[in-house]
Design goal:
The protein has 107 residues and is mainly β. The chain has a single domain, classed as Immunoglobulin-like (Sandwich). It is 0% helix and 59% strand. It is built from no helices and eight strands.
Length: 107
């Protein structure tokens, strides 16, 4: 028996792990793709690492493809865990959760 499960929203990764020296630019990117006919909209629901990690949502293809860049804020030393939650306009997937782990060390 074979089955094909069609997902309405594809995430290249459900988690982000940032690691490196605290005073360098550390960035990771994930991609989000819409697989439905109607355009996808993303809106921040919650984010609990705003003092240690910055993020930017870039719409690559209108309503279809998005990139989210996560960057460590220089000077943050330590181990951090958090979550970025995004609201969507798709009723079958009203929220996207991205887990974030960061480990920033002194030189």
């Amino acid at each position: 028996m074979k089955a094909f499960v069609k997902v309405s929203i594809f995430l290249s990764n459900r988690y982000v792990y940032l690691t490196g020296i605290a005073d360098t630019k550390i960035t990771k990117t994930i991609m989000i793709k819409a697989n439905e006919k109607n355009p996808l909209t993303l809106e921040k629901s919650s984010f609990n690492l705003s003092k240690t990690v910055a993020y930017k949502i870039i719409e690559v293809e209108a309503g279809r493809v998005f990139r989210i860049h996560f960057t460590g804020i220089p000077g943050s030393v330590g181990v951090y865990r958090g979550v970025l939650k995004l609201k969507t306009n798709y009723p079958e997937k009203p929220e996207i959760t991205i887990l974030i782990r960061a480990k920033f060390q002194k030189e």
